[in-house]
Amino acid sequence: MDSNPTISQVEPGPGVEPRQPSRLPMRLLFTALACCTASLVIHWVIMWLTLEPEHFQAYLNNLWQLAAYWLSALAVDGCSALLLARYYLQRHNLVDVSRPARLIALFVALYLVAIFVVGLLYNLLWAQIGPWLYENARGVSPTLLMLPLNLVSFLLASLLPLWLSLHLMRRTGQFQNGLTRISRAETALAFGLLFLVLYTKLLTLLPSTAISPYGMEWMLGLSSAIGLVYSLVALIAAHRSLPTQLPQLAVGRLLASVLACMVSWLLVAGVLGFVLLVALYAGSEILVLVLMLLFGLLLLALLWPLTHLSLRWIYRPLAA
What is the pLDDT of residues 220-237, one digit of tens each? Predict the structure, then answer.
């Protein structure tokens, strides 16, 4: 066995010439982002028209915290659309859809219907159990307690409309069959989005006292913005670590690679955070600021080798 495995280049089999990568998953990714943004805007307009001014102002006072949740929602919807679309095409040996505009229109229609119905049911249920959760959380993030319900809501409102759209179009013979290559840009984008999803979800699941100490709610928004930079670095590192063409997008191994990279990165971040706490208790504010800057740059630099190693040793697709 080779002790130094590398990611294989695509080698088409005899008599079979794989086509160029389909752009459909990327189109559905941007469509999902547009739909998610539209649903957030509609939600804001409804609140602006229905809530009392003082209640709406209280909502605006939590804008930094809400921005982190919006970023997480956009990342989850975009990433899931990309991965589900690519997985569906690969599973059924599909290359591209004959009428992409019809598929996108069907997806948008089903998404908006699902987000309205599921959102209505979610709000009714939240009105019943939300106050009880906040009263009995005992230091645990209510978002963590609502995780099972949020997962069901995500499956019904985001994944189900996309799967139904792809399934209905395939049943009506709107897809072209065949083999296709996967570009490293799409794989790297999936890696970066998965990293961003994990990062933002960890932020939203942390207790408010941990991520926003001393009432500094803006810390959550700032941490989310920094997460975009970290994810961009991970995306670029993944792009540089992958070959130009890949035979498929192995979703399971890609997720395992991102998890390995994230866990290793968080272990280093935990050690550096402990050093920061020691410096903070020492009472040197200048030292803490300098260490925060140096540690932030160090974590940023560490993402490059960690991404490369996780892809090299875990994400190892077989040659086509």
Answer: 777 788 889 999 999 999
